[in-house]
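Database export, one record per block. Field names are fixed; values are copied verbatim from the stored entry.
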Amino acid sequence: MPLVRLMFIAAFTAFAATANAEDGPIRARDLGVPFSGTPGPMNAITDVAGVEVGHATIIKGEGKLKVGKGPIRTGVTAVLPRGRAYDPVFAGWHSLNGNGEMTGTTWIEESGFLEGPVLITNTHSVGVVRDAVIQWQHKNNYFDPLPNEPDVFWALPVVAETYDGDLNDINGFHVTKEHAFQALDTAKGGPVTEGNVGGGTGMITHGFKGGIGTASRILPEGDGGYNVGVLVQSNYGVRDTLMIAGVPVGAEIADLAMEYPQHADETGSIIIVVATDAPLMPHQLKRIAQRATMGLARLGSYASNGSGDIFIAFSTANSGAADREEVRTLEMLPNDQMGALFRATVEATEEAIVNALVAAQDMEGVNGNKVYALPHDRLRETLAKYGRLVVE
């Protein structure tokens, strides 16, 4: 091994040990990945005030697949727009490629409101999680009954999915109501756990281990000083198209291939949740959701035929807008002032995906199938080769 590379690896090892000891989990910026824009204090979707995130992670068993018994590598992630306060938010959604599922979107399109949390799980657990959300909302009085119909309750929950069957016993139906409740009940503000966690536990991205990632941006005061936060469940893409900070990382790190009979390149999905405190109407939030497409494209996605690329955006402004009886006065940002929000969405989406890759760890699942995490040292080495490594 060349001396320069040996010195680089030694220096990185010392850097990583220091970062872990002093600063907690390593994220993409810690590795010197260059990003544009200004992140919020936590660089997470929870930088939008009121937003809470919770996970339930299920990792059990190893070895040969026995349907119904495991191995299990899956879970549930919950995003609560206003925590446990029932106060519907304006929302919009967008499907880049629809080989996936996000329930409840027809009512969002019709009404303009997201009336509850957003949950993300694996493809074959959407039904049980959806039913669990209804039970959770009813149990916690997470609704606003009409005065003359106090016992009437109905809900159309938003539950989305990506496929984890390459590592998880997906046909064993291991996600239960209790897991959905756990994700909802443990949701909180502050730092968000990333990588092999929650709904992202068994996910794969560009041939590396993927999962949950998040990031945020604060707009300049001249653009309103608004916050934009993004959370992704990343499970898409092929190795050779992966670009990070404009660098062909997938082509440079072409080894560390997934150790199992791979599916065709046309598989994989990503769910993207965008939150903002900017006062936007539903049609404007649909425009925001569409811009997540461009952040995804920066990483090398081409939205393949087998990919479920579905995005939702909501605004925490205009509290009380869903009042059932009173006329409400609302605030709306002019369309001409949305450019900075579009840019922030693109930037935060890109960084959230890279954060998912950086946070993920090697995982072995059903039948010994193994997926490797993106190696931090080789990522830095590749960025340095192309003059893109940030050195502080």
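Remark 1: The chain has one domain: 28-385.
Remark 2: Helices lie at 3-23, 105-111, 126-139, 177-185, 249-252, 282-298, 339-359, 376-385.
End of record.
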